[in-house]
Write a structure and sequence with these properties.
The chain is mainly α. About 90% of the residues lie in helices and about 0% in strands.
Amino acid sequence: MSSAIKTHSRWLALGGISIASFLGCIDFTIVNTAIPAIQTELNASIDQSQWVVTMFVMALCSFMVAAGRLADLYGRRGALYTGMLVFALASLGAGLSTSIGMLIAWRFVQGLSCAVLYTTSASLVADAFAPRQRGMALG
C-alpha cells in the first residue's frame, strides 16, 4: 500500500512540476502575439519590441547551467519554489510596465527565473522516478 501512495505522489508531483514548467513555455511564446499591442501601448519601435522576446531568451539560455548548479548546491525543491516566486513577481512587473525599457528588464528577470524552472523541474522529475520510469516521466 505504501508503494502505491509513493507512486501516486510521484505522479502528482510530476503534474505540479509540469504546470510550473509549462508556465515558462507559454510565457515565452505568448508574448509574440502581444507585440503589436505592446508597441502601441508603450510607443515602442520594432527594434525595441524585438528586445522583449530576445531578452527573455538570452537570460534563459545564459543562466540554465548556473541555475542547475545553484539548485544542486542549495536544494532543488527550494530552487523551484524560488524560481516560481520570482517568475510570478517578474510577470507582475512586466504586466505593470509603463515603458519599453522597464518591460525589457522584467522580461530578463522572467527569463532568468524560467531557467530555474526548466532545470529544477527536469532534475526533480529525474530524482522522483526510478530509471525504468524516468524516460516516460520526462517525456
